[in-house]
Amino acid sequence: MVPGSAILIGGNPGAGKSTLLLQTLCKLAEGMKTLYVTGEESLQQVAMRAIVSGCQRPT
Q1: Residue 2 and residue 7: Cα distance in Å, rounded?
Q2: Percent of the chain scored above 70 by pLDDT?
Q3: Quick one: 22 exposed, middle or buried, by C-beta within 10 A (0-12, 13-18, 19+)?
Q4: Residues ≥6 apart with Cβ < 8 Å to 37
Q5: Which of 37, 38, 49, 50 has the fewest CB atoms below 10 angstroms from its CB?
Q6: Side-chain half-sphere of 5: how many Cα atoms within 13 Å?
Q7: What is the Cα–Cα distance from 10 to 18, expressed in whole angstroms?
Q8: Which of 21, 16, 18, 19 is nearest to 6 (CA)?
């Protein structure tokens, strides 16, 4: 990954794209700002997925 670049993740439905992205962002968020953009999930769905994944909400 190149700092400052945009990264596109693609794959078939159910391949684990959202899970991979959320887990990666949770780790990256420990040291930098991150952004999760989705057109398919609600805020509540993303929040629940983050909680289940063990991702801590920033304070």
Answers
A1: 9
A2: 93
A3: buried
A4: none
A5: 37
A6: 6
A7: 10
A8: 21
Confidence of residue 57 (pLDDT cuts 50, 70, 90): low
Report pTM: 0.68
Domain ranges of the chain: 17-53
Question: For the residues 36-58, what does the mean pLDDT come to?
Answer: 84
Query: What single-letter amino acid sits at 14?
Result: G
SS3 category, 56: coil
CB 9 within 8 A of CB 20: yes
Structural contact between residues 28 and 34, judged by C-beta atoms closer than 8 angstroms = yes
**Higher pLDDT pick, 51 / 12:** 12
pLDDT at position 12 over 90: yes
